[in-house]
Design a protein that fits this description.
CATH class of chain B: Alpha Beta
CATH superfamily of chain B: P-loop containing nucleotide triphosphate hydrolases
Structural class of chain B: alpha/beta
Low-confidence stretches of chain B: none
Distance between the termini of chain A: 24 Å
Number of helices of chain B: 6
Oligomer: heterodimer
Number of domains of chain B: 1
Mean pLDDT of chain B: 85
Number of strands of chain B: 7
Low-confidence stretches of chain A: 200-210
CATH architecture of chain B: 3-Layer(aba) Sandwich
Radius of gyration of chain B: 15 Å
Mean pLDDT of chain A: 81
Radius of gyration of chain A: 24 Å
Strand content of chain A: 15-25%
Strand order of the largest sheet of chain A: 1-6-2-3-4-5
Number of helices of chain A: 7
Order of helices and strands of chain B: EHEHEEHEHEHEH
Shape of chain B: globular
Largest sheet of chain B: 7 strands, mixed
Structural class of chain A: alpha+beta
Shape of chain A: extended
Chain lengths: 233, 179
């Protein structure tokens, strides 16, 4: 079993962030007709990349250029393979994952910068992405980046950020897009769970499960927990 | 004699039957049907139709039933029946298949509309080195921080036990709040 799917299900930027934070080593195979590609990861960092013609295996892009190209693939398929024991890796890319993402996005127009991100409006709620302790980063931020970040200690909408830092809406959106791509900020999109429809409960002596009084519930839960702790492992 | 139940749900081939098998005292009783969807056929040829359950004896008077929901949506009429009166439910997600995000998110919504019982999300296949971390799964499914998203290995009884204990902690907490 390996991690596999489509870039529609999980964009490359997400894959790069997940591999970076999980310090993964291996090869990411991608294909989007008429091309195929491979990205090599070592301890979470991208160390090489190549884009090839699917039919002839002729190289189209290599190194950082290949990463920049791949960042704009939207509907390819991918599969992550772990290294086989004798496999060795050559380092051809030394820039950090964050730098590669930002540079790749910078090379495209503003509108196509974040193909995987939902549209941001004034009422979009933002929050900081919790970072794992010890997670290293080589991100350099501008003063304006910090001004926006400092507003997000509490969950805040884009309009509130604009009002607090005094930049224009477009300038603020540009900074937020960059912070989203760096995985420093995320759009709050917690699922709103619907209310369950009330069930008409008919008492039945054979189905005690349907009518567990609150006071009995806790002792029952404790009994089940005790039993579970005795499960043979 | 009181019987209680916990429902295990999740997208197609998320590992529900294996999850139940890991802690059940009896051989899991499953009724499998031939998979009809071509895409799903590539993953496995048989899927659970219903009555996929295991049993755990709590004491001389009480038993806990673990019910797995049917794997294909054409059997979703069974979900309401299974969810009725459950102590809580577990949403299982294959951590190696991002393609399941949409279906699992739909399933979380659907179950929340059927029952108000507490639930947790279990990120299965965490023994695979390429598995996605629970934090990413929480984010993609849009699960609020108040609901646990826990790592899981459905084939490991200790891991399954820990997921069940997490759910029970939540049942305990919810019932304490309700008192």
């Amino acid at each position: 079993m390996a991690l596999e799917g489509t870039l529609n299900d999980m964009p490359l930027i997400d894959l790069m962030h997940v591999f970076q934070s999980g310090r993964k080593t291996g090869r990411l195979l991608l294909s989007q007709s008429p091309y195929k590609a491979m990205l090599w990861f070592l301890d979470g960092a991208i160390i090489n990349a190549v884009v090839l013609a699917q039919s002839t295996n002729a190289p189209i892009h290599a190194g950082e250029e290949a990463v920049f190209t791949l960042l704009h693939w939207e509907d390819g398929v991918f599969k992550f393979l772990h290294p086989q024991p004798p496999e060795s890796y050559q380092i051809h890319i030394t820039h950090s994952t964050d730098w590669l993402i930002i540079e790749g996005l910078r090379r495209h127009e503003q509108q196509s910068r974040l193909p995987a991100c939902p549209r941001i409006t004034g009422s979009t709620a933002l929050r900081l992405v919790p970072r794992l302790a010890g997670e290293e980063t080589q991100i350099s931020l501008t003063l304006d980046d910090w001004r926006v970040l400092s507003q997000l200690v509490l969950e805040t909408t884009v309009d509130e950020v604009v009002g607090a830092i005094g930049l224009s809406f477009d300038q603020t959106i540009g900074i937020i897009n960059r912070l989203l791509a760096l995985n420093l900020v995320e759009i709050r999109a917690d699922m709103v769970l619907p209310e369950a429809k009330p069930l008409i409960m008919l008492p039945s002596p054979t189905d005690a499960n349907k009518l567990v009084p609150q006071q009995r519930m806790r002792s029952l839960v404790q009994s089940i927990k005790d039993r579970l702790r005795r499960v043979a492992v | 004699m009181g019987n209680y139940k916990i429902v295990i749900t999740g997208a197609y081939a998320a590992g529900k039957t294996q999850f139940i098998r890991s802690v059940s005292e009896v051989e899991v009783i499953d009724t499998e049907a031939i998979v009809t969807n071509l895409e799903e056929k590539m993953i496995k040829t048989h899927t659970t139709v219903g009555l996929d359950y295991g049993i755990l004896t709590i004491d001389s008077e009480h038993k806990l039933f673990l019910f797995g929901t049917p794997g294909q949506e054409r059997f979703d009429f069974m979900w309401e029946v299974l969810a009725e009166g459950c102590l809580g439910y577990i949403v299982l997600m294959d951590s190696c298949r991002p393609a399941h995000f949409v279906e699992t998110a739909h399933l979380v919504q659907r179950f929340a509309s059927i029952t108000s019982a507490p639930f947790v999300v279990a990120a299965n296949k965490q023994d695979d080195p390429s598995s996605l971390p629970p934090s990413y799964i929480r984010r993609r499914l849009g699960i609020p921080l108040s609901i646990p998203v826990v790592p899981c290995i459905a084939s490991d009884p200790a891991s399954v036990r820990d997921v069940l204990l997490t759910l029970l902690e939540r049942v305990d907490m919810v019932s304490a709040t309700a008192e």
